[in-house]
Specification:
Layout lengths: L1 E7 L11 H12 L10 E5 L13 H13 L3 E6 L5 H10 L4 H4 L3 E3 L8 E5 L6 E5 H5 L2 E7 L1 E3 L3 E3 L1 H8 L15 H4 L7 E2 L9 H5 L5 E4 L2 E4 L9 H5 L5 E2 L4 H16 L7 E7 L21 E5 L2 H14 L7 H4 L8 H6 L4 H9 L7 E5 L1
Parallel strand pairs: 1-16, 2-3, 2-7, 3-4, 7-14
Antiparallel strand pairs: 1-15, 5-6, 8-9, 10-13, 11-12, 14-15
Helix pairs in contact: 1-2, 6-10, 10-14, 11-14
């Protein structure tokens, strides 16, 4: 049974040791970084840089603590993510959100190049076939996966599995394009976007939120380029009048997430990945959206484990106990304590990704919980 170390977000004493940065230091000592990483070894710290308007990411102070702990054992860390927008623009987003060399004391680099096409095709599984893993993540000998736990438009629950699956895979490949990248997970049966003109108020949110400029309007008529669209569903999500419909297959998507995560993990040797889940600022949307809503539940704490499935199951178990915060999306939808908040918000069967990850051998949903 794998160990999951946990530190609560509550600070009950006026000492640094009782702060969350102080507790993270203790968690990393308890986990024993020297058991995973070697002196002079390059270690990727995989996180999400956020986006313009989405600031509720893993805070730079926590990334700095991970960097400091790795440096103390002689490792050489760097902070990385794959592009959602062009690389130079994404680095600027990271800088605006406080993630830069000065703040984290380590290089901040793009894992799949400035255009998101620096990747290596890896055999995946029965759903994806093969998929483009970011070359820097593929080549790194070790990794710490720092995941912001939150809701997600497609995944329902987004933690370490989603961070690996969508964050370790490029958006596209030089020859087979987005169908070999993270779009392969989104493209569920290559569904066609349906637009209801009568319901549309021409607010243009769907056009503005599309990361690929696949939507445009000419003479107040929506035009959609299905050849470049990877079916992420953002357009459907932001349409407040339900004028857009994009067919999907939740079961396949969840299993594809687990399959992609396994593909990324498979590029590392045994015991060369450590997972840190930050159950803080738990907002309903992904950090790639151009906004961040208020958290739907109170900060819970930080978890550390070397078992991907265990830390995800432990995180979900904690979320299921949480109470919805007032004046949040959860309270607006009249969700009560004891109900599955993220499940009620997104209506996605997110537990499938954990079940499939366990089936694929990525870990166990049974865990030994230790509070530090």
């Amino acid at each position: 049974m794998s160990k999951v170390y946990f530190a609560s977000a509550r600070a009950r004493k006026w000492h640094y040791e009782d702060s969350m940065p102080g507790k993270l230091e203790r968690l990393l000592k308890e986990a024993g970084l020297m058991n995973y990483f070697s002196p002079d070894e390059w270690v990727a710290i995989k996180t999400h840089f956020g986006s313009d308007g989405a600031h509720r990411i893993v805070r730079p102070v926590f990334l700095r603590k991970v960097v400091d702990a790795l440096r103390r054992i002689g490792a050489k860390p760097f902070v990385t993510d794959t592009v959602r927008i062009k690389g130079l623009d994404y680095l600027e987003v990271a800088n605006q959100n406080g993630i830069n060399h000065l703040s984290v004391d380590a290089p901040v680099v793009i894992a799949d190049g400035l255009y998101g096409r620096d990747n290596i095709m890896i055999k995946a599984g029965e759903i994806l076939g093969q998929i483009a893993v970011a070359s820097l993540i593929h080549d790194a000998p070790a990794m710490v996966v720092c995941s912001h736990v939150k809701g997600h438009i497609n995944a329902g629950y987004a933690g370490a599995i989603k961070n690996l699956a969508m964050g370790g895979v490029s958006s596209s490949h030089r020859t087979c394009g987005w169908k070999c990248g993270r779009g392969a997970m989104h493209t569920i049966g290559e569904g066609e976007l349906v637009w209801d003109k009568e319901k549309c108020e021409l607010c243009l949110q769907c056009r503005d939120i599309c990361p690929l400029d696949a939507i445009s309007f000419r003479d107040d008529v929506l035009e959609w380029d299905g050849n470049i669209c990877w079916r992420c569903g953002r357009c459907e999500r932001v349409c407040q009048n339900e004028a857009l419909t994009l067919p999907g297959d939740d079961d396949r998507f969840m299993r594809a997430l687990a399959e992609a995560a396994k593909t990324v993990v498979g590029t590392f040797g045994p015991k060369k990945i450590l997972y840190i889940n930050f159950l803080t600022e738990i907002q309903p949307e992904c950090d790639c959206m151009p906004m961040a809503d208020v958290p739907v539940m109170q900060d819970i704490g930080i978890m550390v484990s070397d078992d991907l499935v265990s830390i995800e199951q432990a995180s979900v178990d904690m979320l299921l106990k949480a109470a919805p915060l007032p004046e949040s999306m959860a309270s607006e939808q009249q969700i009560s304590q004891g109900e599955d908040i993220l499940g009620k918000l997104h209506h996605r069967p997110y537990r499938i990704q954990l079940e499939e990850a366990e089936r694929l051998g990525l870990g166990s949903r049974k865990y030994d919980f230790t509070e530090v």
